[in-house]
Task: structure prediction
Amino acid sequence: MSAGSRAVSPPHHGCPHSPPCPTADSADRDAARVASQHWDQGWSLLCNGVILFEDTGEILPTGRTIEPRRTLPRVACVPRPPAPRRTSQAPVSV
Result:
């Protein structure tokens, strides 16, 4: 290294944002900023090269696919089984 030069770290996967977006191979890759939106087609291109579909499926820049993450229904949304029928115990008047 020459006396007047400084070590410059390479840019983080070409991301211009500060702080840089997560890389495509990191667990929080979906937190990257949207580079191009195609809501009419159901997908977006993220800054890190990930294609994110509206059903949460993904295609990584390597071509690897990630299955959609399906959320389980909330307890309040789960239908309850029907209540058992009650029989009348009152005497029948004639």
About this structure: The radius of gyration is 27 Å.
